[in-house]
Design brief:
Number of helices: 9
Helix content: 25-40%
Protein name: DUF72 domain-containing protein
Structural class: alpha/beta
Shape: globular
InterPro entries: DUF72 (IPR002763), UPF0759_sf (IPR036520)
Radius of gyration: 19 Å
C-alpha cells in the first residue's frame, strides 16, 4: 500500500463535470479519484450533523477530510476563550470520526510569537485522538530566529506537522486574469520551511496558471514526497490553482511527476482528453 493522499481545496466545481468518473454525488465522484480534501468551508460555516452523515455515506473508508478550524476560533479569538466554540464545531462532525485527517489550523498574519502560548494551550486541550497541522503566516516564524525555534520546538514536542504552504509558482505568474490577480492579492508570499516530525506532512501548493510553469517548483516536491512515501509516512498533498476549476489538471500533472519516482502509484482517474465534437 502506498502511503500518500492527494486532494484539492474542494470536491466540486462546474468545470469538473466531464473530468471525474460517474457517481451519485459530486463528493462520491471526487472520492473515487482523490484520497483527501481540504474542508475549507468549515472556516466560514459549520456543517450540520445530517450533512456530515451524508458525506460519510459517500466516501470510502480510506478517504480523509482535513477540515479547517472556524475563522472565529483561529482569527477572531486568536485561539483564546474558544472552548465552547470548539465543542460546537466538533460535535456535528462526529459521524465523520473514522475519516477525519488532521484538522487544519490556519493562523492569521497577526498571530505572532507573543501568541504562542495560546497555540500550545489550544492544541493541548483538543480531545484525543483529534490532532491538527499548524499553518503560520507571521513573518517572524520564517526568520530562523528565536520565534521560529520556539514554534518548531513546541510542534516537535507535540508531534504536530507544520503545514507547508507553497505559493512560489503563483507569484511568478503575470496577473493577466482576475483569478490570478485575486489569488496573488490574498495569499501569503513566504518561504518554505520544512519541520521533520513523525506526524503526516501536509503540503498545500498553489500553482501557476500555465501547467508547464509549475514543473521546476513541483519536481523538488516530487523528490521529497517520494522519500516520505518510501519511509512509510503518509503525506497529504493539496493542489490549488488561482481558478480552482483548473485544479484537476494540476493534480494530474503533479501525479504524473510523482509517478515517475513511485512507479507503484495507481493512475489518476481523471479524463484529461478534450470532449469530441460531433460533425453534425
Amino acid at each position: 500500500m502506498t502511503h500518500y493522499a492527494l486532494g484539492c481545496p474542494q470536491w466540486q466545481d462546474p468545470s469538473w463535470n466531464t473530468l471525474l468518473p460517474p457517481g451519485a454525488t459530486p463528493l462520491a465522484r471526487y472520492s473515487r479519484v482523490f484520497g483527501c480534501v481540504e474542508g475549507n468551508t468549515t472556516f466560514y460555516a459549520t456543517p450540520t450533523r445530517e450533512q456530515c452523515a451524508q458525506w460519510r455515506s459517500q466516501v470510502p473508508d480510506d478517504f480523509r477530510f482535513l477540515f479547517k478550524f472556524p475563522r472565529e476560533i483561529s482569527h477572531d479569538r486568536l485561539l483564546t476563550g474558544s472552548e465552547t466554540a470548539v465543542r460546537e464545531f466538533l460535535a456535528p462532525l462526529e459521524p465523520l470520526a473514522d475519516v477525519l485527517g488532521p484538522f487544519l489550523l490556519q493562523l492569521p498574519p497577526n498571530f505572532g510569537p507573543e501568541q504562542l502560548d495560546n497555540l500550545w494551550r489550544f492544541v493541548d486541550a483538543l480531545p484525543a485522538p483529534l490532532t491538527c497541522a499548524v499553518e503560520v503566516r507571521h513573518p517572524a516564524f520564517f526568520e530562523k530566529g528565536d520565534a521560529e525555534k520556539a514554534l518548531n520546538r513546541g510542534l516537535r514536542e507535540r508531534n504536530l506537522a507544520r503545514v507547508c504552504f507553497d505559493t512560489r509558482a503563483l507569484f511568478t505568474a503575470t496577473p493577466e486574469s482576475e483569478a490570478t490577480w485575486e489569488a496573488q492579492s490574498r495569499k501569503p508570499r513566504l518561504p518554505i520551511h520544512l519541520l521533520p516530525v513523525d506526524a503526516p506532512p501536509v503540503v498545500r501548493y498553489i500553482g501557476h496558471p500555465d501547467l508547464e510553469s509549475n514543473r521546476p517548483f513541483l519536481t523538488p516536491w516530487a523528490e521529497r514526497v517520494s522519500e516520505w512515501i518510501a519511509e512509510g509516512r503518509h503525506p497529504y498533498i493539496f493542489m490549488h490553482m488561482p481558478d480552482n476549476g483548473d485544479a484537476l489538471a494540476l493534480a494530474a500533472f503533479w501525479h504524473e511527476l510523482l509517478g515517475e519516482r513511485v512507479p507503484e502509484l495507481a493512475e489518476l482517474a481523471i479524463n484529461t482528453e478534450p470532449p469530441q465534437i460531433g460533425l453534425f
